[in-house]
Amino acid sequence: MSFLDKIFGSSEKENNVVEFWNKIESEADLDEVIRKSFQKKVAIFKHSTRCFISKTVMRKFEKEVERSDKDVEYYYLDLLAHRDISNKIADQLGVEHQSPQLIVLENGTVVRSASHHSINLDLV
Question: What is the spatial distance between Cα 42 and Cα 35, in angstroms, rounded to a whole number?
């Protein structure tokens, strides 16, 4: 990893996604996430894989989740690969796009959202 990659983040795709994440890779996946929110709370983490701040916030949040026993389904959206889905989230759920961003859904409705360093497990 080069010096600039350490500072700004690598342009390579991240393959080291933590186990509890479920990926959102299509509009059908997003529709399923919204449906699942009627059964249990879901959290969507929108992540820019090239952004150092996004990586830092995501790693901190992952550590919090790994120590938690909250009954929540966690979803991960790679913004660079799926910007169209991020746009659909903004339109369909009425949440302005941010990165990184955590959106919490219950019964098909956004109950909390936060971005950047405001993201933490207390939102879930």
Answer: 10
- Do strands 73-78 and 109-115 pair parallel, antiparallel, or not at all (unpaired)? unpaired
The helix (run of H) or strand (run of E) holding residue 92 is helix 83-93
Nearest to 81 by CA among 61, 63, 99: 99
Identify the bridge partners of residue 43 per DSSP, sorted by sequence position.
74, 104
Domains of the chain: 18-123 (3.40.30.10)
Q: What is the largest CA-CA distance in the chain?
A: 45
pLDDT tens-digit profile of 77-99? 999 999 999 999 999 999 999 99
C-alpha span between 95 and 97 (Å, rounded): 6
